Amino acid sequence: MKVLLVLTLIFSAVGAETMCNVGTTLVRPEACPGGVCTSPIWKAYTGATDQAYTCGTCSAETKDKTCAECTSEEGGAACNVVVLAPKDAEKFACFSHSWNATTEAWQPGAEAVRCPALNGTAIICNSPSKTATKDYVTGNGCGPCAEAAKTDLTCLECTERRCNSASALSFLLVPLLAVIFHVL
Fold it and tell me: Is the pTM of this model over 0.70?
């Protein structure tokens, strides 16, 4: 009887595989030699990164920035579970912006985009400033400006929901015009 039990354990161990979830939008478990799996990372203001669920390691450029690694146990479930917004995630809205070649200016989108954030994360929207050229790299309008864009004054931040629309940003013009009028 003990011999049968030992043989059963040996054969079941030989047949055991390490699994990883694989895919982008539809994720399915697959056998993965080595058992190292990758998955996206959830980030405030942008949500889950574009990293695919794969078998293998993250590149040096993406590891812990947009890609997470884990190691599955032999015979166990895939360790790279589907990345969902944390339970305490909130959403607020900001406007994305695009360059209008006709007017040669940045314009907010017609509809606001949803910005994922953790509970307690500051509401911050961003938009290109009047000095931002068509080469300015814009995100989805959610979150703070990049430090370089703040330094060269090509990005504006505001801290209320939907505050980076064209009408919401007009409040900046009145004080600016008053200062210019007063100086001249």
Answer: no
